[in-house]
């Protein structure tokens, strides 16, 4: 008699084809540790080989997630086989149930498939700056069903993956060059327009967050109701914090205008009141 063999073959739960023994539990633990080791080694290899740039880092994260799902699916399939449950039997016996569940989980399945598409296609990866639902944020995590987007207010938004596949989104990180932005402002009538243009270009060129090339330019846009309307166009790589860049520009332009005696007007209306008596006398 082999006491070790007897212990490993000792049945803890036995029902029809289901047979959970001490040996199957030990084997489960061994397979689990092996799966964790494989995932650890693959992640280390991806970090060394693939993560040369931020874009490749995001792609390696996506590939690792796909590989991880595959490993855990294989792990559960092997464990079911070890304890005597055939995967084909499990699928066949629960087919009717799966149809009913599938009808109720169409959106979840849609998100799941969309997550696979995103991970394989790479149109959106970790670290990308995107605009979705008029909201700008940084992609922090892409999971199999949802993605986490960090907004400029440091709020994490959970976005279903189907929105990143079906909806129109802007991926600022996939641009070949910095995007162009515009700052609109007006000055009072009578202001020297050439001087206004000079001040605007000078303040924009001083800002470290604004690209030197292409060169910023100023457009005299219109003669408004209460002001001479200008637009300042510039390019910047700081997409995520562009509101801060625009705010700094407004402070600097306002100080420069005050120093030169140039005012920014506010809307005003002249109201003439004619009394009924005066109207009859006329």
Automatic annotation (TrEMBL):
Where is it chiefly localized?
Answer: membrane
Question: Residue ranges of the Mechanosensitive ion channel MscS domain?
Answer: 107-174
| GO cellular component terms, semicolon-separated | plasma membrane
Q: Which residues form the Mechanosensitive ion channel MscS C-terminal domain?
A: 182-264
What single Pfam family name could you report for this chain, choosing any that match?
MS_channel_3rd
The record's subcellular location field reads: Cell membrane
Q: Which domain of life is it from?
A: Bacteria
Q: Which InterPro entries match?
A: LSM_dom_sf (IPR010920), MS_channel_C (IPR049278), MscS-like_channel (IPR052702), MscS_beta-dom_sf (IPR023408), MscS_channel_2nd (IPR006685), MscS_channel_C_sf (IPR011066), MscS_channel_TM-2 (IPR011014)
A single Gene Ontology molecular function, please? mechanosensitive monoatomic ion channel activity
Membrane topology summary? Multi-pass membrane protein
SUPFAM superfamilies (alphabetical): Mechanosensitive channel protein MscS (YggB), C-terminal domain (SSF82689), Mechanosensitive channel protein MscS (YggB), transmembrane region (SSF82861), Sm-like ribonucleoproteins (SSF50182)
Q: What UniProt keywords are attached to this protein's entry?
A: Cell membrane, Membrane, Transmembrane, Transmembrane helix
* Regions that span the bilayer: 20-42, 62-83
Cited Gene3D superfamilies: 1.10.287.1260, 2.30.30.60, 3.30.70.100
Similarity comment:
Belongs to the MscS (TC 1.A.23) family.
Q: What is this protein called?
A: Mechanosensitive ion channel protein MscS
UniProt source species: Putridiphycobacter roseus
């Amino acid at each position: 008699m082999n006491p070790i063999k007897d212990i490993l073959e000792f049945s803890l739960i036995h029902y029809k084809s289901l047979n959970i023994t001490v040996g199957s539990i030990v084997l489960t633990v061994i397979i689990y540790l092996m799966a964790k080791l494989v995932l650890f080694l693959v992640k280390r290899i991806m970090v060394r080989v693939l993560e040369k740039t931020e874009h490749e880092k995001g792609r390696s994260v996506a590939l690792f997630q796909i590989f991880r799902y595959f490993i855990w699916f294989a792990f559960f399939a092997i464990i079911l086989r070890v304890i005597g449950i055939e995967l084909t039997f499990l699928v066949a016996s629960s087919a009717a149930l799966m149809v009913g569940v599938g009808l109720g989980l169409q959106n979840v399945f849609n998100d799941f498939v969309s997550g696979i598409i995103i991970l394989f296609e790479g149109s959106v990866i970790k670290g990308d700056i995107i605009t979705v639902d008029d909201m700008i944020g940084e992609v922090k995590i892409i999971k199999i069903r949802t993605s986490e987007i960090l907004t400029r207010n440091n709020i994490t938004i959970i976005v279903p993956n189907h929105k990143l596949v079906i909806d129109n989104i802007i991926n600022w990180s996939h641009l070949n060059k910095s995007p162009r932005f515009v700052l609109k402002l007006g000055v009072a009538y009578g202001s020297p327009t050439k001087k206004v243009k000079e001040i605007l270009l000078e303040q924009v060129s001083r800002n470290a967050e604004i690209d030197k090339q292409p060169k910023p330019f100023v457009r005299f846009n219109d003669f408004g109701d209460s002001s001479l309307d200008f637009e300042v166009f510039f390019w910047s790589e700081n997409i995520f914090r562009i509101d801060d860049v625009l705010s700094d520009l407004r402070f600097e332009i306002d100080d420069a205008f005050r120093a030169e005696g140039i005012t920014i007007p506010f809307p005003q209306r002249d109201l003439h009141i004619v009394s009924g008596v005066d109207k009859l006398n006329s």
